Hints:
By secondary structure, the protein is α/β, with parallel strands linked by helices. The protein has a single domain (61-238), classed as Vaccinia Virus protein VP39 (Rossmann fold, 3-Layer(aba) Sandwich), CATH 3.40.50.150. The chain has helices at 13-18, 22-38, 50-59, 82-88, 101-114, 128-134, 148-155, 173-186, 219-223, 231-238; strands at 70-74, 93-98, 118-122, 137-143, 159-168, 193-197, 206-212. A 7-stranded mixed beta sheet has the order 3-2-1-4-5-7-6, with helices on both faces.
Amino acid sequence: MDEKAAAPAPPESASSIFGDALPAAVRFAELLAAAGIERGLIGPREVERLWERHLLNSAVVGERVPDRARVVDLGSGAGLPGVPLILARPDLDVTLLEPMARRVAWLEEVVDALGLSATVLRGRAEEPGVKQRLAGADVVIARAVAPLDRLWGWSAPLLRQGGRLVALKGESAADEIERDGAAVGRAGGGHPSVERCGADVLDPPATIIEVERMSALGRASGRGRPRQRSAQRTRKEQGH
């Protein structure tokens, strides 16, 4: 695993976010800047904004995660937001869930290289075996995976009642809630809310959508609510 490619130096705020794990966070940035680009996990243009857009933006999600929580990073991909969250919050029990074999291999290498206490699991959230193994999670986190209604359909069966989805979204957050909030409610979720994370260390702060699992799940919540979407929109929403 090539770790020698140049990566930007961490900003001062990285020290307060990662603490003693800052050297491991620097190493992860180096891995992303080298092998991460070679394997198509991030684009070359992302190198200059690795810290603000990717590592710090992911790590501050920990503000919305309870102590010692059991967390599932749904569609972990390059390890975002899961790996920075683990580094910033070593008290958490995190599973990095990813369906693609090449990304699973990457995640396993990263976990080994950084000496992380984390589980890497290959699979999709909607698979019965995955739901059985991961059910009862306190928090599901996700970044650039799917629209809110579909994401909630995949996340809800993994959550205990009272557990929460914490989804990094960005500027589209309010629009997604307006569009999909009713569907989330029908599928056992509370009213989605927009939250800001890292306001004291990031400009702009990370924007998330948070949904609490309120009730027992019906048929719709386990499978999501199908919707016709253009291929262009789907590719845009699922990109990293």
